[in-house]
């Protein structure tokens, strides 16, 4: 595994197009694995998706440069090495405006779809409101309802953690879950009264 700082090829394109990006720094993760089982490749892609990386090629992904994210890429590169492959984490100092927009649009599109799925599930929970238990009902039913609410909040926060560019849909998804919280049962201390305690975006 190696970490290298490289000037992006897009610095030339930027001058040619007379358009520059925002100055954002990027982490480029490049890897290759031995031929054979597809399991290691699937594992790598799942981990990159969990981090919110943009797909460039079957062996390359781009992620916003942030120390905690880069640390996780370093760990992933080490795992690739242990599988008999090779991996590099490279710091890219410049993207053209057009390329930066393509990357952001890709990952924002993925996050928007994830927020939409969460919002849909929250709305389906509300549609079943007549069947939700009251504090006097069976404990098993109440616990199941609480677990369902907790799962919605956890899903939302996992998506929010990999939402690096303020994708649309975040506020609507959080608000939908918050409406579900009127049916909380007071069992789990992990269930919070506000799903998104630090909203930073407007849909």
Keywords summarizing the entry:
203 residues; alpha+beta; Alpha-Beta Plaits; 5 strands; elongated
Number of DSSP E strands: 5
Per the CATH scheme, the topology name of the largest domain is Alpha-Beta Plaits
Shape: elongated
Which CATH class of the largest domain? Alpha Beta
Number of helices: 6
Fraction in helix: 40-55%
Mean pLDDT over the full residue set: 88
Distance between the termini: 40 Å
Radius of gyration: 21 Å
Order of helices and strands: EHEHEEHEHHH
In brief, what are we looking at here?
The chain has six helices and five strands; from the N terminus they run βαβαββαβααα. The chain has helices at 10-17, 39-51, 67-82, 97-127, 139-161, 170-180, and strands at 2-6, 26-32, 54-57, 60-64, 86-92.
Can you lay out the helices and strands and say which pair or pack?
Elements: E1 2-6, H1 10-17, E2 26-32, H2 39-51, E3 54-57, E4 60-64, H3 67-82, E5 86-92, H4 97-127, H5 139-161, H6 170-180
Parallel strand pairs: 1-5
Antiparallel strand pairs: 2-4, 2-5, 3-4
Helix pairs in contact: 2-3, 4-5, 4-6, 5-6
Describe this protein's structure.
The protein has 203 residues and is α+β, with helices and mostly antiparallel strands. It folds into two domains: 2-95, Alpha-Beta Plaits (2-Layer Sandwich), CATH 3.30.70; 106-183, no CATH class. It has helices spanning 10-17, 39-51, 67-82, 97-127, 139-161, 170-180; strands at residues 2-6, 26-32, 54-57, 60-64, 86-92. It is elongated and about 60 Å long.
């Amino acid at each position: 595994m190696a970490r290298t700082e490289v000037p992006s090829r897009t610095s030339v394109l930027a001058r040619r197009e007379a358009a520059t990006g925002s100055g954002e720094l990027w982490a480029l993760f490049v890897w290759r694995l031995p031929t054979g089982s597809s399991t290691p490749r699937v594992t790598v892609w799942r981990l990159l998706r969990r981090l919110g990386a943009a797909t460039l090629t079957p062996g390359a992904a781009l992620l916003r440069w942030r120390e905690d994210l880069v640390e996780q890429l370093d760990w992933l590169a080490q795992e690739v090495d242990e599988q008999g492959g090779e991996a590099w984490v490279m710091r890219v100092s410049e993207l053209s405006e057009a390329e930066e927009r393509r990357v952001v649009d890709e990952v924002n599109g993925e996050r928007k779809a994830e927020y939409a799925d969460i919002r849909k599930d929250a709305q389906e929970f509300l549609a079943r409101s007549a069947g939700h238990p009251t504090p006097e009902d069976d404990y098993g039913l109440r616990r199941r309802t609480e677990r369902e609410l907790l799962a919605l909040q956890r899903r939302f926060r996992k998506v929010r953690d990999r939402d690096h560019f303020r994708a649309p849909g975040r506020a609507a998804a959080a608000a939908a879950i918050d409406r579900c919280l009127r049916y909380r049962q007071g069992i789990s201390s992990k269930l919070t009264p506000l799903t998104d305690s630090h909203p930073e975006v407007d849909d």
